[in-house]
Amino acid sequence: MSVEQKTADLLDEVRGALQACGVEASALQGSHPVHTPVTGQQLLSVEPHSAGDVTEMIDQAHAAFKTWRDVPGPQRGAVVKRWGELIAQHKSDLGTLVRAEAGKIVSEAEGEVQEMIDICDFAVGQSRMLYGKTMPSERAGHRLMENWHPLGVVGVITAFNFPVAPYAWNTALALVAGDPVIWKPSEIGVLSGMATNALLGRAMRDCGAPEGVHHLVVGDREAAQPLLDDRRVELVSATGSTRMGREVAPRVAGRFGRYLLELGGNNAAIVTPSADLDLALRGIAFAAAGTAGQRCTTMRRLIVHESVADELVEKLRRAYETLTIGDPGDSGVLVGPMIHQQGFEGMQAALEAAKSQGGTLVTGGQRVLADKYPEAYYVEPAIIRMPEQSAVVCEETFAPILYVVTYRDFDEALELHNGVPQGLSSAIFTSDQAEAEVFLSARGSDCGIANVNLGTSGAEIGGAFGGEKDTGGGRESGSDAWKVYMRRSTNTVNYSGELPLAQGVEFI
């Protein structure tokens, strides 16, 4: 089948999915081209918004907040419940769009959609549990407590590699918290964004929610500027590179706004002498090669005890050479394309730098299927052994490269693990309980996520997701991440009939 026919067939799937989700055909005409990494060719075009359009969205969202904040939490939760039902009904449609735009294999694309369903379920329960506390007052006849109130307009900026799930992590919780949301998806993931937004709009209408509570921004980074600078946007949640975070944070902080950052990851696993190597092999292979290495939680570093390094690397080499690379819609394919030429070139530059710093390529790194898809970038996931954790290893290259370094004692392994600027996800493979406990302790992994005997990818929505250091410090999804989207009010009620001051102060 020619690349043109493959693109045409994919376009038919995409149009069908968009129509099923409620996206109007008239919205699929404009000056902004939408390409697919599957073939590298253009699928559709959409009309981008201007910065002025986004300011109007902020106007509408800010006005809607005055109504939405007074809707009871469980009723706001009913909207999210309906949204989750619609996402579940259209799981295959949304999966098709994620596959077309991000190049994910079918199970990974639909797995991302499942994350949206799961966070909606979580948020619906949370809508009845926006708990504050009652604390003992030091003054007799007084009650001391805290309440949580809606924060205001929330701006959400997401990246290409997970075009819909992080939006749902933020939006499901923001909505039950009483906040309107304005979403700026990656311009690479705009079609899945339009479909997701259409389903939310239907849920809003089905539940009789007020107008203006949710908005979608189509366009490049310039269109998002009002979200960073407008004081009415109380919180900006941004997912992307550390470079992007360094721009977002000071601009939002400069107006005393809040920001939630989910940035780079240079995730590692430690493999100890007691590890089950077959278990480690499965966990490492998916975490390092899945999604063509384009997850923020992708495993990029493998820190292996010298006594088991040769055996494990050989197992990995054999496993990598069985990975099926190709069209992510084809049965049996495990590794789809990289997102674009820039990503591929970044990978090649990193491999050359690693070799110049003493690295030895074990396997992979070559572009494949270029004759079939000359405008797409399929690549063999690479393993490269390094004599030390050199400069290139300490950088995040958003590509399927796994650097392998060895260690002699456990303290050295921890030092290597924590010796990079990023701090998102981490793992240890061990059968030694003491090693596992140390890894999870304050002197162990310095990441926001620390796993034992599983890889660095695949976080569940029940736990808070995020990392430290150059990863930005943000937390999304489960646990008490809902508090980010609300403001805390500490209240004291005096029912004593007297007016004692705190700390025994006497003023009159």
Automatic annotation (TrEMBL):
<dbReference type="InterPro" id="IPR016162">
    <property type="entry name" value="Ald_DH_N"/>
</dbReference>
<dbReference type="GO" id="GO:0004029">
    <property type="term" value="F:aldehyde dehydrogenase (NAD+) activity"/>
</dbReference>
<dbReference type="InterPro" id="IPR016163">
    <property type="entry name" value="Ald_DH_C"/>
</dbReference>
<keyword id="KW-0560">Oxidoreductase</keyword>
<keyword id="KW-0520">NAD</keyword>
<comment type="subunit">
    <text>Homotetramer.</text>
</comment>
<feature type="domain" description="Aldehyde dehydrogenase">
    <location>
        <begin position="31"/>
        <end position="488"/>
    </location>
</feature>
<dbReference type="InterPro" id="IPR029510">
    <property type="entry name" value="Ald_DH_CS_GLU"/>
</dbReference>
<dbReference type="InterPro" id="IPR015590">
    <property type="entry name" value="Aldehyde_DH_dom"/>
</dbReference>
<dbReference type="InterPro" id="IPR016161">
    <property type="entry name" value="Ald_DH/histidinol_DH"/>
</dbReference>
<dbReference type="InterPro" id="IPR044638">
    <property type="entry name" value="ALDH7A1-like"/>
</dbReference>
<protein>
    <recommendedName>
        <fullName>aldehyde dehydrogenase (NAD(+))</fullName>
        <ecNumber>1.2.1.3</ecNumber>
    </recommendedName>
</protein>
<comment type="similarity">
    <text>Belongs to the aldehyde dehydrogenase family.</text>
</comment>
<feature type="active site">
    <location>
        <position position="262"/>
    </location>
</feature>
<dbReference type="Pfam" id="PF00171">
    <property type="entry name" value="Aldedh"/>
</dbReference>
